[in-house]
Design goal:
The protein has two domains: about 350 residues, ABC transporter transmembrane region fold; about 130 residues, 3-Layer(aba) Sandwich (Rossmann fold), CATH 3.40.50.300. The chain is about 60% helix and about 10% strand. It is built from 20 helices and twelve strands. Strands 8-9-10-5-11-12 form a six-stranded mixed β-sheet, sandwiched between helices. It binds adenosine-5'-diphosphate (ADP) and magnesium ion (MG).
Length: about 600
Amino acid sequence: MLRTISKTNSSTPQPDKPAKKKLVVSSLPPRQVIGRLLTYLQPYRRRMFLTICIYVVCVTIAQFYPFIDRILIDNYIAVKFIDQGFYVVVIGAVILHAINMAGFMARSLSITRISQDLLFDLRSQLFHHVERLSFNFHEQWPVGKTMSRFLSDVSTLNDFLTNQIAMLFHDAASAVIIIILMFVIDPGMALVALITLPILVIAAATLRPRIHEGWEVVREYNTRFNIFLAENISGMRVIQAFVREATNYKQFRSSNDTLVRSWLDVTNLSARLGPIVEITRAAGLAAVLYVASYQIGLTTTLTVGTLVAFTSYINALWGPISTFTNVYLVLQATMASAEKIFELLDTLPKVMDAPNASVMPPVKGSITLDHVAFSYDGTRNVLHDIDLNIEAGQLVALVGQTGSGKTTISSLINRFYDVTGGRVLIDGHDIRSVTQKSLHSQIAVVMQEPFIFTDTIFNNIRYGRPDATLAEVIEAAKMANCHDFLSQLSEGYETLAHERGSQFSGGQRQLISIARAILADTPILVLDEATSAVDTQTEMLIQEALERLMKGRTAIVIAHRLSTIRKASQIVVLKEGKIVEIGNHESLVNMPGGYYARLCRAQMVGEH
Ligand SMILES: Nc1ncnc2c1ncn2[C@@H]1O[C@H](COP(=O)(O)OP(=O)(O)O)[C@@H](O)[C@H]1O
Ligand SMILES: [Mg+2]
């Protein structure tokens, strides 16, 4: 069921794109969501049960305090008679208090441990799932949105599954015990004390839907805030370079402001419950005192001790009661977070291993694209009827204008997406019939924007082969022409790379990622514009490294520089998703009107 919330803080403009749309909040039947949520407690059911038992015991003990006061007042203080019995009761009270304190410590520790274990499980499950999701998911979901699931939503669920559930048991137990004790002490008075309760219940029920809606709005703005934040922090260089600080700061303040307002709106609503709880509590107390003023002295049952006990009980009872009025709200927040997390967990990867997928044996590296067609969005084809045969060990160059489909072809060979028509074969295996793991482990990719992780250079180079030794890493680095500058770093290969390797130049990052590919030692290699955007000196280093790397492997190279392309066994020229020229340098260089011929002429002119 989808519901549109029109109630937005329209007074402030929204910085992020989705804010221009209306908020769409989905809601599943709560019972379904809670059922699924409780499965997360399954592994901890014994500890949870024990904790709840401790809660109930503590609560019971605590509710006996007014009862004890009543005995002390009526039997000893009011009649001015103190004997041994008085001290026995006092010592008994002290012992009960000690037990209660011990129980309090035990349950806090226990709840914290369950809670931490549960957080661990939830986060691990989410990460494991996100790792399996295909490229199209990561292209469509902003990082900030995924982060929101890991941070705010996971902690809301955790809070519910541990604190809230335990609190509920705690409060339900206290309420039941207090009401029983009140009836045991004086049934008539108990009825008087509870007379204002229905008013509170009705008030809470009327405010509920509005508060619910308010929380959903908060959640949505929170996600948008996170998306905005994540994007702005990772794009900070561009922000600074284009002097966008002031504009973005304004947008940030507006997003921040919307978030704060939505919080205030909903807390305003919830705050209305507070006075109602207070008024009904005070009215209950007044009713008891009023009735008592008539009865004290007239009846033998109502004593000063009973009155003192009753006032304590009314005060104690309104705590759990106000919690109950809030339970629904807490549940709503939990439901909203749970649904968002389940939405993510239920998103299936578009590319999945076939149920009977086999492990692709080590391949020689022949690749066939058989009438391949592909569309990203299901409507516009970006590749049409691509037929290409690459023999094992061949070097194939893909050339063509930006947007002609080169990167798409390399992504399809990696099966980052599934073809929409035709098939891709590697050594005769349709890549959809083998496991992605066995496929990916035989293809190394060097991308235009190599990704360096916040880790040592050593670990970054052996990313695809975590068991490689330092000697092997150094050997790969030497082949990749990056040993010279890496060994000059203050801590050599143990130097920690900054996020995305920002302390290295583009060319250096490229060389590191080539070393990574060399070490991965796969029969197939895909290089997507690995040599573009670097200076001639670095290009020569990369060129040399690539030649060593490509030896004995099937290599698909996307490049613009002739020096890289001309040695290719096949040069494939793409235009608007179709192969328009194919052949080696000699056969294409003089083709009248050919794209490659033009490319050669342009670069030869440039070289002289
Ligand atoms: N992730 C994507 N989602 C939708 N369309 C895409 C995506 N990536 C590329 N395209 C489109 O597919 C076409 C081919 O892109 P691409 O293969 O990246 O070209 P090239 O690498 O030759 O520059 C382009 O029209 C581009 O707009
Ligand atoms: Mg590209």
